[in-house]
Design brief:
By secondary structure, the chain is of the alpha/beta class. The protein folds into two domains: about 210 residues, P-loop containing nucleotide triphosphate hydrolases (Rossmann fold), CATH 3.40.50; about 130 residues. It has a five-stranded parallel sheet. α11 crosses α12. It is globular and about 70 Å long.
Length: about 375
């Protein structure tokens, strides 16, 4: 039974009923180490169906063929690399793939500038190492090590944030499917079912470029930004509903017009043009991703629930927009002001309350 007091449950607990229904209804061949067939994994990810009376909700709203390629990669001995702009659901898809395949999405290495090779391979409990010397009890196994032992999926988030020498610790693991522990004279072979799902942000390109040798060990799937307004609105609406369900926001869900306004603003500033293509816009320094739109609406719900009547008002939305758009005070404030005056104000009607609230925050 999932603990309702936990702030964020892993996918395998949050969607346990869906996973159990798919497993019990399984009729296809299940690969070694998996809990369900590739076809059932796809059903879990794509959703919009019912299995044994349980609604399977969509986890990724995008090109089905890309999801099929990702799942098929995990059936082989190749690792999977998901790349794309921020907010294209790389981590979200990675987590749900691991949850569906193994029922455990928690074997994660978070890539940062401070990530070390030991976090990919293994490290030591130094108090025990001094007391007993090198032994299995003194070893601290990494998520990748544990995945190899159990024949399951390890996740490597934001791999391009790691230093090159740390990234390259994966080369021998992905090539040989073995991990050497010279201190113990031990070779750990990967059990069937072992794989790695890595994610990389295209905005981080050039931070720590992956070597050609490492790229060759991955099948690369590029996740695009949502292709149109309606798709992005569906993603935002669904994720806001899911996220807010686990939070005490004391607010109603954002209305269709509210979601449309936020997504429209983000898409226009992101592309540098209005949706009809008639007017060019100054780009902002921020990414303005789908993930940021989701966060903005959740924050607006928190404002409405804590300091309003529970319904998102223009002033709640304006506060979130100001923080999301104006990342660089000098550059972005000018771009945002031009957007307010040249686009939002001229739309009039339902846009005017939001225009006024944003203008007041941005400075007249």
């Amino acid at each position: 039974m999932a603990d309702k007091n936990v702030q964020r449950l892993p996918a395998e607990e949050l969607f346990q009923r869906e996973l159990d229904a798919l497993i019990s209804a399984e009729t296809d061949t299940i690969p070694t180490g998996w809990r369900m067939s590739p076809r059932s994994v796809l059903t879990y990810i794509q959703g919009n169906t019912k299995v044994k009376g349980v609604d399977i909700t969509p986890k990724y709203m995008g090109n089905q063929r890309l999801v099929e390629i990702a799942i098929a990669t995990l059936v082989t001995d190749r690792a999977l690399l998901l790349i794309g702009e921020p907010g294209t659901a790389k981590s979200w898809l990675s987590e749900h793939l691991a949850a569906a395949v193994n029922g455990d999405s928690t074997k994660v290495v978070q890539g940062t500038a401070g990530t070390t090779e030991e976090q990919i391979r293994y490290s030591w409990n130094y108090a025990m190492l001094i007391a007993k010397g090198p032994c299995l009890e003194a070893m601290v196994k990494s998520p990748v090590y544990r995945a190899m032992e159990t024949g399951s999926v390890a996740r490597m988030e934001e791999i391009s944030r790691c230093a090159s020498e740390v990234q390259d610790a994966l080369i021998s693991i992905l090539s040989e499917k073995r991990l050497s522990v010279p201190e113990l004279g031990l070779e750990v072979p990967a059990r069937k079912g072992f794989s790695v799902i890595a994610t990389a942000n295209t905005r981080d390109k050039g931070v720590n470029d992956m070597s050609a040798a490492l790229k060759r060990r991955f099948n690369i799937v590029v996740l695009p930004t949502p292709s149109n307004l309606e798709t992005e609105m569906d993603i935002v609406r669904t994720r806001v509903e899911q996220l807010s369900a686990g939070l005490d926001l004391n607010a109603g869900q954002p209305g269709e017009d509210t979601v449309e306004k936020v997504v429209t603003i983000f898409r226009e500033l992101r592309s540098g043009a209005t949706l009809d293509g008639k007017q060019k816009l100054k780009a902002t320094s921020g990414v303005l991703s789908t993930a940021e739109a989701i966060s903005l609406l959740c924050n607006s719900m928190a404002l409405a629930g804590s300091f309003g009547d529970g319904a998102i008002a223009a002033r709640d939305l304006a506060a979130g927009l100001q923080g999301a758009v104006v990342k660089d005070e000098e550059k972005d404030k000018v771009s945002w002001k031009e957007y307010l005056e040249n686009v939002m104000k001229k739309r009039g009607g339902e846009w005017l309350p939001l225009y006024r609230a944003c203008r007041e925050l941005n400075g007249k």
